[in-house]
Structure formats: C-alpha cells, structure tokens
Amino acid sequence: MRRLAIDVRPGEYAVARLDAGAAAPVGLFDRSGDALVSVTRTGGELSVICPAEAAPAGARVQDGWRLLTVRGPLAFTLTGVIAALSSELAAAGVALFTLSTFDTDHVLVRAADLDRAVAALEASGHDVFHA
Q1: I need a labelling partner for 46 at 20 to 30 A (CA). Which of 10, 20, 52, 99 fits?
Q2: Burial class (CB in 10 A: 0-12, 13-18, 19+), 3
Q3: Going by DSSP bridges, is the β-strand pair 127-130/5-8 parallel, antiparallel, or unpaired?
Q4: Which pLDDT tens digit goes with each residue over 24-36?
Q5: Other C-beta atoms within 10 Å of 80: how many?
C-alpha cells in the first residue's frame, strides 16, 4: 500500500441506530463546520454517524469514537485502502468502523485506542496529522 496522509479529526463521534422506518433526524445536516455526518438506510435499520453531541434522541448509540480521514480525493481505481488500514489496525488490536464517501475513506476508532491506532499507522509508513 502506498503511503497515505491521514487526518485525525477533532471531537468525538457517535454511531447510532434507529429503526428502519424512522425518519432521518431533523437538523442533522444543518450543523456548521466540517464535521462528518452520514445517514444510511437499509431494510433493517437507519444508521447515523455524527458528532457525539448531535446523536439522535431515542437511538441506540455507541459513542466514544474518533475519526481518521484519508486525505483525498482518492481515485476509484485505487484498491486496498480500507484493507490495508484495517489490517494495520487489526495487527495493533484496534477495532474500527469504516465509511467511504465519493472522495475518500474514513476510519473510526475508539477514543481509548486513538494513540495506539496512530502509532500503528505511522509504523506502517503513513503520515498522520492532528487537525
């Protein structure tokens, strides 16, 4: 895998689950700043990734995540980014939650594991920056 530039984004994130038929939380996209917000619906759930303080009321919430973002845009022909990052973090015993967007890939790790995650990524040759 080529050397990646990865930004540790400020703040804590939450991963939340609502019932599949729930409406997308009102105001979630009205936030100022450049925080990541993702809403995904499947036949069985509505998942939300957002800053912890914006986690939707009534959702089952897992908070305490930190966001690492690969600097992009990444070409659609580029392969193995998530595979490499997940392997490197798995070898360090770091659990992760991934998300891809049109431009790039994002990895969430538990806040308690952030230092270990950064060390593992740097040891694998990536440049990690604290935003």
Answers
A1: 10
A2: exposed
A3: parallel
A4: 998 888 877 789 9
A5: 10
Amino acid at 18: L
Tens of pLDDT, residues 64-123: 999 999 999 999 999 999 999 999 999 999 999 999 999 999 999 999 999 999 999 999
Instruction: Classify residue 21 by burial, with Cβ atoms within 10 Å: 0-12, 13-18, 19+.
Output: exposed
Region of 15 on the Ramachandran plot (φ > 0 left; ψ -120 to 50 alpha; else beta): beta
Task: Work out the number of other CB atoms within 10 angstroms of the CB of residue 118.
Answer: 21
Provide the CATH topology of domain 5-130: VC0802-like (3.30.2130)
**Largest distance between two CA atoms of the chain:** 44
Question: Of 84, 21, 11, whose CA–CA distance to 49 is shortest?
Answer: 11
In the block, which residue shows the tokens 């036949």? Answer: 43
H helix runs in the chain, sequence order: 81-91, 114-123
